[in-house]
Amino acid sequence: MLYKPLTNLDNVMSFADEYLNEYYSELQGYGIKRAISKCIFAIISTFVLDNYKKYSEIEESNSADILKDIKQDSPLVFYALLGCGIPNNTIDWIITDAIAITLKNIDKLSV
């Protein structure tokens, strides 16, 4: 299925609510409100949708490469999370999982 650009974030936000819900409470433990978490996951999912074709195959093993690219493209997301006291390895774990979940559900998001 070909990727069709999203005209709004409703699809991505609904996806985040359904598939990334468990990470909201993890981030709330560090004082990050749900609305901010939703924006972070929207940034991650949108990045994956816009760039997944750059990677050889759509699979979880690409998550590390995509994580590196997101860090270069959207460093403020990471700085904000670090500024909230979240350890770097926890940030990487949460975002890598969000990338992998997005990759697994790419067909649902690109409709």
How far apart, in Å, are the first and last alpha carbons? 8 Å
Helix content: 55-70%
Percentage beta strand: under 5%
Counting DSSP H or I runs of 4 or more residues, the number of helices is: 7
- Summarize the main sheet: none
Structural class category: mainly alpha
The pLDDT mean sits at 82
Low-confidence stretches: none
**What count of domains describes the coordinates?**
1
Topology, number of strands: 0
Shape type:
globular
Radius of gyration: 13 Å
Write the element-wise H/E pattern from the N-terminal end onward.
HHHHHHH
Report on this model:
By secondary structure, the chain is mainly α. The chain has one domain (10-109). The protein is 69% helix and 0% strand. The chain starts with 9 loop residues before the first helix and ends with a helix. The relative contact order is 0.19.
Q: Which helices and strands occur, and which strands form pairs?
A:
Layout (H helix, E strand, L loop, with lengths): L9 H10 L1 H8 L5 H18 L11 H11 L1 H9 L4 H17 L1 H4 L2
